[in-house]
Amino acid sequence: MQPFKTYLLPLFVALAACGDPPEPATPEPTTPEPATPEKPLRVLSAEALAERQRIASKALARPGTVKASLVSTAEVNTALDLPAGVVASASLTSPNPQASMVAPSYGNILPRRGSSLFIMSTGNINVANLPEPGTDYPPAGAEGDKVTYRVTLNVPDNSNRVTFDFRFLSAESPEYIGTQFNDTFTARALDGLGTRTVADASVNSAQFFDVSSTRAAGTGYDTLFADDPSGVDYFPATYPPEIMLFPDAGITDFRTVNFEVMRGGQTTIEFEISDLGDGVLDSAVIIDNITFTSLEVVDPNPNLIRTYTGAVDEDPLRLTRPSSDAIPPVQGVAADGVTQVLVRTKVSFAGSMTFSLSGTSPANGGLGAVGTSTRAASVTVPTVLVGGVHHAFALYTSPPDFNTGGFENARTRSVTLSGAYTPESGVGYTSTVELSILRPPLVLVHDVWSSCSAWQGTDGIATSELFNTTCANYSETSSASLNLKANDEALPDAIQAALTKMRQDQNAVTQVDVVAHGAGGLLTRKYIDWANYRSSTNFMEGDINRLISLNTPHEGTRMATELVRMRDILKAETSGPWELVRDALAIPHKISLDVDGGSAIDDLKVGSALINNLRQTDVPTHFITGQGAQPLPRTSTLALLPDGIRVLYQQMETYHPDSRGKTLQLRQKLILGPDSTLFCNDPHDIFAGTAEQQGGTVTGSQAITPFTVALANRNTEHFKVQINAGHRDRILQLLNSPVGGPLFVPSIPRPSTVPTVNSCAGFTALPPPRPAVEAVATAATGTVVITSPQPGTVVSPGGKLTVSVAGAVGFQPETVLIMTEGAASILESGPFTTTFKIPAQALGSLTLVAFGIDSQGRMVRSTSIPLTVSSSAQLSSIQLLNGDAFLRGPGAKLKLVVNGKYSDGVVRDISSPSRGTLYSVSNTSIATITADGTLTGVSKGMATVMVRNGTVLTSITVSVGDQSPASCIPIRLGEYNLFVLEDYQEGNEIQGKLAAGRNITLQNFSVGEKLPATDTANALVAGGTLSLANGYVWGDARYGGKLAQDSNVFYPRGTVARATPINFTNQGSALKALSAELGALPSNGVATRESWGGVMLTGKDPKVNVFDVKASYFTGATLLSITAPANSLAVINIRGKAATFTNFGHAFSGGIDEHGVLFNLPDATALTAFDYGFYGTVLAPNANVTFSGGSWVGGIYARSLKGNAVGQLSRLRDTDICD
Asked: Which residues is 1088 bridged to in the sheet?
């Protein structure tokens, strides 16, 4: 959740990869393949050319003005991470020492490896001489503005590839894109393979984007702005504060170059950057991390992942695809125990390769052959011939834990992968490559009535520099139902943003760690229940590595139950105080108990629909709970709460049906204190019972950390634990602890199965309002007035003000509430005068208002008093929550949160345009932004968001993906003809693929005969024993236990081997989640059962028709008729614990066919069919299926299957059911 100081996590693009010819090498082409003809140069206007010539005449550097000496080649070689003995010779040609230098960083751009990097520029590399208009080294024009570094390298005997990283910046962008002023960086290789260009970059490059502060702060390029960057730039230029500015320079992400060299020979690399057209508007290139290796590590996710199983593709032809933005090279992995990367190498001759890792497994990860789930410290694989070239492949899985001892305070550690090549004849060699191991991203989820700023206290986990932190922000809708789309998607959007940022830094990552506070924990569990939570993009493991639940009421909280009870009774009263209660809650803390479309407080009730619908959460979890508030005195305990929450409690004490009409002393016993009516003697944290925070985990478990509410530490109560130092330290310990250890339970049970803990005799039902309530509902007469201060009084942020309130026109207040936005004071006895503290964040103006409550509970409101906030504090910097922004795809939205740091040390929210903040986007074809800072994705790409307030401005990069912004249920059930989680017995013919989580028994059989000849991977998979007699397997067979087969089993186009390529546990979880979510869809089709036995289904929707059908409809049925449009999907939700299908036919009309029919049985534990034919796919993940004397034309996904029914291949069409 760091602001923009979080450095850009770039998207790396490799230029070349495996697949080069074997040694002895054939030279790579020295001339490029025929390309699309270049566009003609864009013609500049006479005005633009004249201005450029004018500034060129003023930018010529004077000889002798710079006294520094040129950087030495030894320093450059060290910066490029070249080890001693590798460099045969080197030379640097530079017009000026300021045009080439070695530095520990370039602004916020850090070295890729080592402690320094090498920079070359067409002008001065410092912010004193900005790159626009730039520096023209003599002679005038482009001739003097060229830097060349030439280095000849001795290639080690064990390496046949060289890689390096570079990043290009230019002030020529955007106005001179496509013109003659196209500054260029080029890298050429010269050796026995020929002379070839291995890298180039310019403002015309497809990977060139607008610069931003997050990507290039401190380089000088980030300070170049213009009101119209594509127009004519005049120097010097000044812009009024009300004018929005745009970036006037560009940058590439770090790009990794990978090219072939000859083992044991020499190669020369020539790096060159030059001005074109003239010598002004400078460009620069950063070069770092030259390495030698024969191993290449790439991220197979998602383009080399099989959609249904989430396993890496086994096709060698696909595994040799060149690295690119689709299959990016990898320099680091997140320690989530799930991430897999492909390690590959090209060798000269047939043989074997032993891949191994430094240290032990799984502490440093694990290696295994492609197509297996076994991981160890080493694996030996045979080479594979692909296109006349020998290759070897292995999968490396990241370690399950970052801290293996001694890394508690580290951000990264490393592992070395090695490949020992043993040819069938001749001498082999060993090559190595080093990977960084990183902590998974950390995602924070705030509570109800809260925001991401609640995590920002100095003692909170959000300030730790150990983590790349992102906050899931739903603050603007945090009073609304947790089912609201904006709330529902806050966490998955934050997770995708966190993963994207880490991947853009050339790291492979699959999962995040989540710390969720209060209602944020329920949002997290709700997300884990999504049907697409486990998908191929996360290897069917889900997006969350571990969950730290922070005071989350997993079974609900009785406080919410009673708040809802109070609200509903007040709303039912025709002359009651509800409108005033609602206003009093909204002013200091923006709390609402009555949001159109549903309120969060309803979801937090004990036994709410949302809570009861949560399923078992299969994510390692630790529970941090709060306790000890029950014996504390009411008044001092209430004082611990934030002002707005104190108002909420006071209003509940006054207007709850069990309090109204009672004395003040009795009302104050409702919630807090040792005599609490609400909590009785049950431990609680002031808001939620301790038992509810344990999520059904047994008291005393190591997976529970209890904290006690202490009057001496206000940050120990429910609403502020996220900024308590003790909680922070415990969270750090947990993030440094083994995720599979005793501090984490593997799952949280369904809330509906957890017994309620409530020692109170009352509050177990919702009794009707008592007559006493009617007596106090009489409208109040009179009012209260603020007698001091006077309207227009000048106050200062954080200052104090004496406020006096008095009853008027006969009203006699017993309690007075004084409030403004962000602050409130409660006076429970007269005289009603207090010292009121002005919020430190206040700016401009405030409105002061008072509410009075008399002894009968009648409530009145004063006239508002305007105050003027005067402050000499000046805005010094702007920070954006989470730094760079990420949008899933076109139509996706994100509201930016902008904080301003002022000279008085206070950080204020300045997101609103009323605070003077202006927003713009550099490329509206990528994203747009509204005046209030709401970003909307338009198309895939990257753009820069500028944020300006007065003379202070900053910028971030927004990345837009290509996903649909809609919430979708992805249906991908076309991969397997039969997939069962347990046993498959008595089978004989399956035309497509077959998988069973336990044992498979087949006799006189055929499996996979109708599969395409190229689709042979995992055609037959048994998690346990595979027993085969007399048959054919038309593809690869894999088993996890034993193989028992006779001599009459044949594999015409595959092999049989022991391996476990499918994680059946995860697949089962995904199938059950999908079935449950499909079962919850509202029906939009008509289902009828005719007296003559016809089950008639009619749908008209062109995309998806959902039918609700009782299982009993099929008992004695004579026909199943489905009428729906062509290419639509029919989801037939069959209700009941058991279903029987026998001896009736199918009829289709309207265009639909079996490719669009899905029988979903979410509740069935038994499914029986005989003498029957299913036309469509059956999803019954909880059911044991008995099926003989028939067939299915589609797929069956079930718990188990016994019988001789034939599986005919007819794949279910992939469909996304979206909002």
From this structure: 1096
Between CA 738 and CA 363 the distance in angstroms is 10
Q: Report the alpha-carbon distance of residue 794 to residue 870 in Å, rounded.
A: 6
Instruction: List 1110's β-bridge partners, or say none.
Output: 1135
Q: Are 1140 and 1112 in contact (CB under 8 A)?
A: no
Gap between the Cα atoms of 414 and 364, Å rounded: 8
| pLDDT tens, residue by residue, 264-296 | 999 999 999 998 877 778 899 999 999 999 999
Backbone phi and psi for residue 218, each to the nearest 5 degrees, phi listed first: 90, 0
Within a domain: 657: no
Q: How many domains does the chain have?
A: 6
Within 478-581, strands assigned E span 507-508, 512-517, 544-550
Share of the chain above pLDDT 90, in %: 80
Taking the C-alpha atoms of residue 1128 and residue 1102, their distance in angstroms, rounded to an integer, is: 6
What is the predicted pLDDT for the residue at 763?
Answer: 53
Residues 1089, 1174 within the same domain: yes
- Phi and psi at 601, nearest 5°, equal -60, -30
Q: What is the dihedral of CA 502, 503, 509, 513, to 10 degrees?
A: 30
Residue 617 carries which DSSP code? B
Q: What is the pLDDT of residue 948?
A: 94
Name the token pair of 674.
Answer: 């040792």
The predicted-structure confidence for 340-382, as pLDDT tens digits, reads as follows 999 999 999 999 999 999 999 999 999 999 999 899 999 999 9
Single out the residue of 1209, 1200, 1193, 1170 nearest to residue 1001, CA to CA.
1200
Structure tokens belonging to residue 132: 């626009």
Domain boundary among 272, 290, 308: 290
Nearest to 893 by CA among 844, 944, 946, 958: 958
The parent domain of residue 1127 ranges over 968-997+1062-1218
Whether residues 796 and 688 fall in one domain: no
Q: Which H or E run includes 1013?
A: none
Low-confidence ranges of the chain (pLDDT < 70): 1-68, 127-128, 140-144, 229-238, 762-779
d(CA 163, CA 434): 13
Q: Quick one: 278 and 187 in the same domain?
A: yes
- Are both 853 and 956 inside the same structural domain? no
Q: Measuring CA to CA, how many Å separate 899 from each of 114, 167, 469, 907?
A: 34, 30, 17, 6
d(C-alpha 884, C-alpha 494), whole Å: 12
**716: region left, alpha or beta (phi > 0 left; psi from -120 to 50 alpha):** alpha
Does 807 share its domain with 729?
no
pLDDT one-digit tens code per residue, 586-620 = 999 999 999 999 999 999 999 999 999 999 999 99
Q: Which of 668, 667, 658, 672 shows the shortest CA–CA distance to 718?
A: 672
Q: Which of 880, 877, 899 is nearest to 953 (CA)?
A: 877
Return the pLDDT at 243. Answer: 78
Residues in the chain: 1219
pLDDT for the residue numbered 457: 83
| Contacts by residues 749-752 (CB-CB < 8 Å, ≥ 24 positions apart) | 749/616, 749/695, 749/696, 750/614, 750/615, 750/616, 751/554, 751/555, 751/556, 751/611, 751/612, 751/614, 751/695, 751/696, 752/611, 752/612, 752/614
What does residue 537 show for φ and ψ, rounded to 5 degrees? -70, -15
pLDDT tens, residue by residue, 63-86: 444 445 789 999 999 999 998 889
Shared domain for 284 and 304, answered yes or no, is no
Is residue 241 located within the same domain as residue 305? no
Average pLDDT, the chain: 90
Spell out where 1124-1203 has E strands. 1129-1135, 1138-1142, 1145-1149, 1157-1160, 1166-1170, 1173-1175, 1177-1188, 1191-1194, 1196-1202
Determine the pLDDT at residue 775. Answer: 39
Instruction: Record the tokens describing residue 530, joined without a space.
Output: 């999504």
User: What burial class does residue 841 get, using C-beta atoms within 10 Å of its C-beta: 0-12 exposed, 13-18 middle, 19+ buried?
Assistant: buried
Same domain, 251 and 302: no
